[in-house]
């Protein structure tokens, strides 16, 4: 019989003392990243939130692939990096199978290859590397940008409500915002520098927002926090590259690859600052880089992604009504 893995981790004593009720648990750990084990190194994952593009959310596939890879390594190693290619669109109508290949186990590092499969074909290929914790005299990192704390900022939902309260809002824009509100994304965000709704001037391709998984995860297993962060890191990442182009609407936006490096321990259910920037666009593609900061200023993880960006010029009246959350 198939068993569930990873999502339901053991609680540490402070969490069990708090007796976290089931409905406060993050859906990311109870469902999305809770894979069904079918065989040794073979898992099945199901979907929770599906974007309006009707293709599977890339972050979900990466997070699930990392759960599958992490199941096959020792307890004392943590993911330090992953490199993925999205080779086909994921179909939300069927589950995804994850097949793990144990590429190498060394004294310090273990490498795994994971293929995410639908209809017998790979939709994602992922290499993940795990490392045992080792001390080092070499330690440096950039400094976290100075921003207002999450408590002083509006959530994505509150910003949408604010935009919806504008009396002269066009019907089409209202519909778009209401659809956004209805989305059941298992992530909470608080933008630090949200573009003004009516803004139709080019912005620097840089974003800053506080982000965390919705619901409670607990201190628990650092491996699982890495999987949750992998999920979160793909959310609203690639659209950073569109900020300089208010006159263009994306007709096709899809990530081609995603890389991630984990530097320090963190909790994915606590606010982290996501700093994203796009260093380049061209040839219908765009490159974005991201840094996930713990709120105490420690750099938790770095990410990079290239995506396809196909756009269409907006008419002047449409530019003013486009939502740029
Ligand atoms: C943004 C965050 C996310 O999570 S995105 C989700 C994760 N990423 C993904 O799902 C991407 C998965 N990968 C893919 O879908 C494929 O690798 C992609 C990127 C589409 C590869 O593209 P390609 O090799 O062109 O595939 P294809 O021939 O099957 O075409 C797909 C659709 O694109 C169109 N297309 C192709 N080339 C052009 C072009 N030069 N100009 C305009 N359109 C083009 C094709 O006609 C095809 O369209 P359609 O699907 O038939 O409507």
TrEMBL record:
Give GO BP annotations, semicolon-separated.
Answer: acyl-CoA metabolic process; fatty acid catabolic process; peroxisome organization
Annotated Acyl-CoA thioesterase-like C-terminal domain residues: 202-308
Q: Name one GO cellular component term.
A: peroxisomal matrix
- Listed EC numbers: 3.1.2.1, 3.1.2.11, 3.1.2.2, 3.1.2.27
Primary location group: other
Cite the entry's keywords alphabetically: Fatty acid metabolism, Hydrolase, Lipid metabolism, Peroxisome, Peroxisome biogenesis, Serine esterase
Which Pfam families would you find in this protein's record? Answer: 4HBT_3, 4HBT_3C
Question: Entry's Gene3D superfamilies?
Answer: Acyl-CoA thioesterase, double hotdog domain
| Known catalytic reactions | butanoyl-CoA + H2O = butanoate + CoA + H(+); propanoyl-CoA + H2O = propanoate + CoA + H(+); octanedioyl-CoA + H2O = octanedioate + CoA + H(+); prostaglandin F2alpha-CoA + H2O = prostaglandin F2alpha + CoA + H(+)
Q: Where is the Acyl-CoA thioesterase-like N-terminal HotDog domain?
A: 48-131
Subcellular localization, as worded in the UniProt entry: Peroxisome matrix
What is an example of a GO molecular function annotated in this UniProt entry?
Answer: choloyl-CoA hydrolase activity
InterPro entries registered for this protein in UniProt? ACOT8-like_C (IPR049450), Acyl-CoA_hotdog (IPR042171), Acyl_CoA_thio (IPR003703), HotDog_dom_sf (IPR029069), TesB_ACOT8-like_N (IPR049449)
Answer yes or no on keyword Lyase: no
**Function according to Swiss-Prot or TrEMBL:** Catalyzes the hydrolysis of acyl-CoAs into free fatty acids and coenzyme A (CoASH), regulating their respective intracellular levels. Displays no strong substrate specificity with respect to the carboxylic acid moiety of Acyl-CoAs. Hydrolyzes medium length (C2 to C20) straight-chain, saturated and unsaturated acyl-CoAS but is inactive towards substrates with longer aliphatic chains. Moreover, it catalyzes the hydrolysis of CoA esters of bile acids, such as choloyl-CoA and chenodeoxycholoyl-CoA and competes with bile acid CoA:amino acid N-acyltransferase (BAAT).
Quaternary structure and interacting proteins, as annotated: Homodimer.
Q: Family membership, please give it.
A: Belongs to the C/M/P thioester hydrolase family.
Q: What is this protein called?
A: Acyl-coenzyme A thioesterase 8
Q: What is the lineage of its organism?
A: Eukaryota, Metazoa, Chordata, Craniata, Vertebrata
Name of the gene: acot8
């Amino acid at each position: 019989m198939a068993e569930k893995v990873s999502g339901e981790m053991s609680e540490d004593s402070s969490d069990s003392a708090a007796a976290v009720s089931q409905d406060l648990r993050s859906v990311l750990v109870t469902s999305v990243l809770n894979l069904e084990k079918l065989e040794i190194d073979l898992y099945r994952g199901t979907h929770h939130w599906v974007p309006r593009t009707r293709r599977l959310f890339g972050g979900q596939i990466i997070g699930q692939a990392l759960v599958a890879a992490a199941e096959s390594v020792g307890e004392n190693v943590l993911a330090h990096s992953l490199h993925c290619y999205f080779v086909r669109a994921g179909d939300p109508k069927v589950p995804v199978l994850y097949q793990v290949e144990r590429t190498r186990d060394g004294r310090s590092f273990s490498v795994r290859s994971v293929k995410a499969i639908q209809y017998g074909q790979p939709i994602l290929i992922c290499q993940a590397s795990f490392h045992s914790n080792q001390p080092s005299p070499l330690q440096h990192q950039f400094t976290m940008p100075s921003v207002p704390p999450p408590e002083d900022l509006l959530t994505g939902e509150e910003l949408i409500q604010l935009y919806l309260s504008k009396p002269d809002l066009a019907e089409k824009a209202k519909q778009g915002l209401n659809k956004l509100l209805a989305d059941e994304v298992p992530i909470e965000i608080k933008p630090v520098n949200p573009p003004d709704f009516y803004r139709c001037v080019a912005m620097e391709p840089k974003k800053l927002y506080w982000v965390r998984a919705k619901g409670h995860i607990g201190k628990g297993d650092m491996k699982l926090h890495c999987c949750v962060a992998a999920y979160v890191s793909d959310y609203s990442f690639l659209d950073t590259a569109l900020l300089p182009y208010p006159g263009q609407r994306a007709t096709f936006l899809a990530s081609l690859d995603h890389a991630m490096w984990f530097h320090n321990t963190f909790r994915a259910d606590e606010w982290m600052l996501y700093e994203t920037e796009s260093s380049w666009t061209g040839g219908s593609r765009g490159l974005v880089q991201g840094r996930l900061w713990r709120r105490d200023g420690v750099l938790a993880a770095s990410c990079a992604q290239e995506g396809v960006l196909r756009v269409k010029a907006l008419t002047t009246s449409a530019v003013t009504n486009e939502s740029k959350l």
